[in-house]
Amino acid sequence: MRVSYEALEKLIRVYAKLYKALDGFWYLNVMDKHGNDEALRCDLLVWERLCKYEMDKITQAFNISGKPVVSMMKAFQLSPWSWNLKSDFEMINENHIIWRVLHCPTVAALERENKGREQAQCNYIEVQLNDAYAHYFDPRIKVNCLKTPPRQSKDDYFCRWEFKLQE
Q: Is the pTM of this model over 0.85?
């Protein structure tokens, strides 16, 4: 079966949404049965394991290697989760980037829920996951959280992260 470029892109976006939905469904089920604290602990364990698996698969499939910060940025953009985000990267140099998330569907949903759960998601889970992704490429990459919710307005970006290789 031949598939057009447009159809493949559409399929990738559908798969990314399914990836996001699976994450949300299992998290909510753990939360309903065992509470939010246990769901957060389980979430972190799953994503830490997935991080290495995902980066192994992406870097091998797309032959990504070289400068660790640049390689991380390339691989991260190919992650199914990233296809759910609107974000941009500012490359300061090959050892230093700033990543800004302009839209995050998870945080947007948590903001609509209005229970304050976005704080734990961003300031607990994402801090550790960004470290795990960075350290996959080089343990010398230091991750700094420059901004997380709450947003100042609905037009504000969601978060901002710095990845810098320490010499």
A: yes
